[in-house]
Amino acid sequence: MRRRGRSALRGLLAGCLLAVTAVTAGACGGERPETLVVLGPWTGPEGEAFEAMLHRLDDGTGQRYAYEGTRSLRETLVAQLEADAPPDVAILNSIGELTEYARANRLQPLDDGAAAAAARAYPPWAPALDLDGARHTYWVPLKVDLKSLVWSDEGRSAASPDWCVGLASQATSGWPGTDWIEDILLHRSGPGAYARWATGRLSWRDPRVRAAWTTWAQLLGKRSQASVDQSLTTSYVGTPDPAKPGGEPRGLLGSLSPRCTHEHQSAFIRYVYADRKVRVDPSAGFLPGPTAHDGAYEVAGDMAAVFSEDPRARELVERLSGGTARSLWRAEAAPELRPLFPAATDPQPTDPTGRRIAKILTEQARTLCFDASDVMPPGLRDAFHRAVLQYFKDPAGARLDTLLKELDTVREQTAPGAGQAGPPESGVCAPPGG
C-alpha cells in the first residue's frame, strides 16, 4: 500500500512537471516507462540548464526525467516525505541532512558504479557510512563551489575594504554570515580544529570559535542601524536590476548604500557579475591573524541521493555523475553558469572568472574543507543561522556568550555519543588529490 500511494503521488507530480510526457504506460496508451522525478536546488537559468541536460540524457532508452527546482529545498523535501511521495532522486548540499536521512532508512545505498564515481571526486564528501551493520555509500557529489573567496571590482584597492553584506535567503537567511565565521576559524585555527567543530567534537565556547565571531565583527566595523537593517533584508544576490531581462539580480558590489567595495561569497556568484569586470581573490589575504593556513579552502557541494526503491533511480545517479552528463551540462549552461565539477580531471569553466576559480581549486588549494554548517545536523545548522542574525544586529549587546552556550546545548543533543551517527571527523577536510 505504501508503494502504490507513493508512486501515484509521484506520478502526479511528474505529470505536472512534464505535461508532454506520459507518466505511466497506460496514461496515453503508449509504452513509455514512468517518469523519474529529480528534486534539486537550482532555479532560473541554472535550473533550466540542468533540466535541459536531463532531457538529453536518455541515450535513446526512452527513459523520461522531470526536474523540480526550488530554493526552499529542505522544506519541500520534508513535505514530500511526510506525504509519503518523495522524489526518486534529490540533490542536497548538506552532509548532515543526508546522514540523517540515511540513518532513518530514507536513502537507498548506491550501486557500485555510482559509489566508484563518488570515490573519484574530491575527497572526502561521499563517505561510506556504517549503518545497521553494513557499510555503504549513499550519495555522490555532482558539482562543487569554492568558498573562501573575496570579490571586488577590477582595479579596486584591497586596503580598508567596505564589506558588502546581504543575509536574506528565504528560509535559510543568515548563511552568508556563517560562511564568514567558518572561513575565519578555518584560516586562523586550521583544518583540525575546523573539522572537530563541524562534527560536534569542539565546544562553541572554545576560545578559537569565540574569536572567529568577534573577528568577523571587527572586520565588518561599526555599521549604522540603517546599514544593519538593509543587510538583514537584502538578498545575498542583491536587488533586481531593471536593466537586466527578467529583473535578474545585480549583485551586492556597489549596489548597497553606502556603496560597498568587497564581498565574501562562494564561486556561484560569478553568474551575477557575468557582465562586470570583477576580481576574485582568496579570502586568506583579507583576514587578520596567522597565515599558516592560507592553503585551506572551504567548499560546498551538491550531492545526489536516491530516495526511491526504483532501481532506475540508482542508475540515474550513476549517469548524472558520469562524463556524458557533465559534457551535456556544460553544453546547456551559459559560460558563467558552467559548474565546477568534483574532480580535477573533469572539464572546468571557460569564462575568465571561472578559470581563475578553477585554478585556485586545482592548483593552489592544499586542503579542502566542506562547509561546516552543511556538515552539522540540520537542527544545529539552523540554530547557527539564527544566532548569526542575532549577533549581526548588535555585536556589542547580543550576549555572545549566551548565544554560544545555547549553540553548545544544541550541539550536545546531536553530538557523536548522544545517540547520533554524524559524519566522521575525517570526512570533512582532505587534500584535493586525496
Automatic annotation (TrEMBL):
Coiled coil: none
Keyword terms of this UniProt record: Signal
Residue ranges of the region described as Disordered: 235-258, 413-434
TM helices/strands, residue ranges: none
This protein's name: Alpha-glucosides-binding periplasmic protein AglE
Signal peptide positions (record): 1-27
